[in-house]
Design goal:
This protein is mostly helical and 196 residues long. The chain has two domains: 17-63, Orthogonal Bundle (Arc Repressor Mutant, subunit A), CATH 1.10.10.60; 67-195. The protein contains ten helices and no strands. The longest helix is centred in the middle third of the chain and has 20 residues, at 65-84. The protein is globular and about 55 Å long. The N and C termini lie far apart (68 Å). Keywords: DNA-binding, Transcription, Transcription regulation.
């Protein structure tokens, strides 16, 4: 039997605004997954399709790519800031490892921060990252765990260098191998102490 307008059809009813929270959550989940798999410039229609929503729904929640990326990666920064609050001198090494893990797992996070710096002067992600690193670095230096010659700008330079390795590696496993070699070869310099 061919369904007509009078025939019951097995379809989920449009719940309108009641589905807004679920739709937003599905969009963010899909965005995190596709940004990680395909990079920051993955088509937004692919994210909408992955989330099971129409493009109009995606754009109602996130009119711009950067807004979507900020929301998708906010938990990266929140996790980083939470860890930075640990007063242990070893926190700095753990922050560095987390930053590398996030970069290997989600290189799009770094792409988003770089693009945000150029496009959205109000974005405070890099400032938040600097503040978190600075407090942990200061404690590590006071404990003698990290050289006094290292500063936050040097850490962020090392991070950008690591991103270059990650962005050009054929796979995450090869990215980790290359990062380990790079930091091992820098054993006499400041980068070696960052690795913890």
């Amino acid at each position: 039997m061919v369904p007509t307008s009078a025939s019951p059809v097995n379809r989920v009813p449009n719940r309108g605004p009641a589905a807004a929270v679920e739709n937003r959550s599905a969009i963010l989940e899909a965005a995190r997954r596709l940004f990680a798999e395909r990079g920051f410039h993955v088509p937004l229609n692919a994210i909408a399709k992955e989330a099971g929503v129409g493009q109009g729904v995606l754009y109602r929640h996130f009119p711009h790519r950067l807004g979507l990326a900020f929301a998708a990666f906010e938990d990266n920064l929140a996790t980083f800031e939470t860890l930075a609050g640990d007063p242990s001198p070893s926190t700095f090494g753990r922050l560095w490892n987390l930053l590398l893990e996030q970069t290997v797992r989600e290189a799009a996070f770094v792409e988003m921060m770089l693009e945000a710096r150029l496009a959205r002067s109000e974005y405070d992600g890099e400032t938040r990252l600097r503040v978190a690193l600075a407090s942990a670095l200061e404690r590590a230096q006071a404990a003698g765990a990290v050289t006094d010659q290292l500063d936050v700008s040097g850490v962020l330079l090392a991070w950008r260098m690591a991103f270059g390795i990650v962005a050009t590696a054929p796979s995450p496993d090869e990215a980790w191998t290359s990062l380990e070699v790079a930091f091992r070869d820098a054993a006499e310099g400041a980068l070696a102490v960052v690795r913890g």
